[in-house]
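> forwarded from #structure-qc
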């Protein structure tokens, strides 16, 4: 079998997800470190270990392991993040949240930023990278996710990012400075909807998805506890799930001056932001 035939086979076998060619391309480039154009290797025989490796990967994908876990990395806002079992895969919709806050804080010098429920660190580390004058604290509770956060911090070699391993529901933040920006993409799926998620999404940690009975536990925590650490005029910006923005606004309405909801291309409310 030539490498090109192996590539075609991989693309066919992975077509169940609707993106066989794309997935085969990513796997060939990232794992086999070879290109995917026929003229690159139409006549090159695939090595035995390459065939075995591809068969193993095809089986892992057929058992719904996310492609991102198999390749061990994923891009977010133009940067590469290490991911794997135990950490949420960065999503493109979260890039919109980052883009929004970067614009909102562009005139604040040396901003203090809290990234609550930071997972891989995709939000907080991106802000720290693009705003070297900022100090970004990243709060994460779970061991595996925190390990990925630290790995990613190491790859970024940042001096202005501070990982904090804690439970945001009871962490004593009295020693921290007040924040110009509190940002979060918290777990927000209703507990009884978690078992109904796509099999592939269910390979991601439940702790990254389950937002409690009504999906709003983390917004309640931010509205009752963390808001006290925001500066006057500070910004709180959070990702949310489809249709949650009204309830989130009612949680914050007695404490904030301004509110904003940003909808995505599918007209789903994706970002809720408040000014104190
Ligand atoms: C939806 S994921 C978001 C991860 C990352 N910010 C992103 O956008 O990809 C939520 C994260 O919150 C973490 N988490 C869950 N409960 C927590 C808690 N009580 N305190 C701190 N982090 C928590 C999970 O481990 C998970 O990494």
């Amino acid at each position: 079998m030539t490498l090109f035939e192996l590539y075609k086979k991989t693309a066919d076998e992975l077509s169940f997800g609707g993106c066989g060619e794309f997935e085969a391309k990513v796997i060939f480039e990232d794992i086999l470190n070879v290109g995917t154009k026929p003229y690159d290797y139409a006549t090159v025989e695939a090595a035995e270990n390459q065939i075995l490796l591809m068969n193993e990967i095809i089986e892992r994908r057929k058992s719904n392991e996310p492609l991102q876990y198999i390749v061990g990395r994923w891009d977010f806002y133009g940067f590469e993040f290490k991911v794997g079992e135990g950490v949420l895969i960065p999503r493109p919709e979260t890039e919109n949240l980052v883009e929004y806050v970067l614009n909102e804080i562009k005139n604040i010098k040396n901003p203090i930023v809290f990234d609550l429920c930071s997972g891989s660190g995709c939000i907080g580390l991106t802000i720290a990278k693009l705003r070297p004058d900022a100090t970004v604290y990243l709060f994460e509770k779970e061991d595996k996710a925190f390990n990925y956060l630290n790995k990613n911090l190491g790859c970024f070699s940042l001096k202005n990012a501070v990982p904090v391993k804690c439970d945001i529901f009871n962490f004593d933040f009295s020693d921290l400075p007040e924040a110009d920006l509190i940002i979060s993409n918290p777990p927000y799926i209703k507990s009884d909807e978690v078992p109904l998620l796509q099999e592939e999404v269910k390979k991601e940690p439940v702790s990254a998805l389950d937002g409690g009975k009504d999906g709003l536990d983390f917004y309640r925590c931010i509205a009752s506890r963390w808001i006290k650490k925001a500066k006057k005029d500070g910004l709180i910006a959070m990702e949310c799930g489809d249709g949650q923005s009204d309830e989130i606004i009612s949680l914050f309405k007695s404490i904030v001056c301004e509110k904003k909801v940003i909808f995505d291309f599918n007209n789903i409310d994706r970002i809720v932001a408040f000014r104190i």
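QC bot note: The chain has a mean pLDDT of 95. The beta strands are 73-76, 79-82, 112-116, 135-140, 161-165, 179-184, 230-239, 258-263, 269-275.
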